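[09:14] KT: can someone run the structure on this one? pasting the chain below
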Amino acid sequence: MNDFNSGSNKGKYNDYSRFDELFPDFAIRDDSDDTKELRGSEIKKSADINSKSASQEKGTKPNRKGVYFSTGPVRTGSTQSRPQRPAPQPMPISKAPARQQGKAPAKQKGKVPPIQQKTQTAVNKVGTLAKNIGKNIPKDKLPDKQKISELAARFLTIKVVTIILVIILSSATIVNITLKCINDILAISRSDEIITVEINDNMTTKDIISVLHDKGLIKYKSFCLLVSDFLGYKDTKYIPGAYELSPNMGLEGMLNILKSARTTNKTVRLTFPEGYTVDQIIDKLASYGVASKANLLKAFQELSYYNNFDFIQGIKNRDVRYRLLEGYVYPDTYEFYIGENATSVVRRFLTNFQNKWTDEYDARLKELNMTLDDLIILASIIEKEAYGTEQMYLISSVLHNRLNDKSNLYSYLGCNATGDYISSIPKDSISNADFIRLHKLYDTYQHKGLPVGPICNPGTEAIRAALYPPETPYMYFRHDNKRNIYMARTEAEHIANGKKVMRVNSGQAQ
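[09:31] RB: done, structure tokens below
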């Protein structure tokens, strides 16, 4: 159709050679001859004849005004034989009827205005023409139905495959994450690296899981928290302290260690004699595999783990003491688990101390106007200086006499054991500066009154001797190599006793 109306055909004869191909069902009505019906190739001939005759008569270009499209058969013939349409009659002019009061003039039924008829006719023709044009488009110009079906099938296949791939990838990702989450519990192929974890007092399971996550022992904190609630750890009480854990233990294994303070059922029974220091106790525990030395050292220094013990609150000079719990590790026989939590080990000692301390002792402290911490410091000196229970009470009387002296002549207790306590510290464990500082704080030849802390862990007899000193006039004491004690009231007597000790030690008679 574009060829008929394109600008390139202006002023030229129309070429109807492809009309049969484009519009096989169409016909041309020639107003000059109603008796003829032109179809297909006859259109060109008719158009040429009419154009030539018109040109000969008028000397102008062929007149194509008589050519019309029609959707049905058209009869051709002379215009004389074709019935003439009646001329339209003019409508009579008359006055409109006067409106009645409040009423509009009534419409005439059954009559349609001529302009509306023409409009409807034109619309019908245009619709019919559009349908015929659609029907008569060449088939080679239309898409192949098989091709359309194949394209639709391919698109559907691609869509289905894409959805399946998305589902597979999503499922694989979910499965991968799920397996990693579960591996926090099962600990399959996890590292056996030992990581020290510190658990404080009153920590909840949620707090502990956060610590484990921060230390790299677990990877998925929220999942582990959910599983721990399912496994019944939500309201579990844990033992504060330093723990040695590893990722290959799994979440449940680590939580069990934190709440039970043991890794095996194997036990060992150990006895710690009176006068042992914290360092000696740590060495013995570590040698039997109860806990590591590093964890034990930390456990004996961290007082925040043991706030439930009332006597811990009374420990003074915490920032300058060598071993904070020295004096409170009650000497006795204990049974420990192999691989037990270090904090649990320390708590056993402290619990025993608390059980051994009685209300009677508290009442006696008030009578002496002493604190529990001061009494333990005094008892630790007595424990280290005396040989046997009898000497404990004699030495206790000397120390009490010096502490209560108002003349300031005996400000220094002058006990060798206090200096020896610091001298026994391994040189590679503290610096020279700390060694000198501690000597000044503990050595009662340099430090007035009691030292800043206990020098050992006293037993029951030493504690009782400190609580109940006998009344004596003695202000001095000394020993010979045979552990005999020499008491003196004055410095002159003390010097004389020194000479006696020298003779005994040299093998001479007194």
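[09:33] KT: thanks! The longest helix spans residues 145-186.
[09:34] RB: yep, looked fine to me
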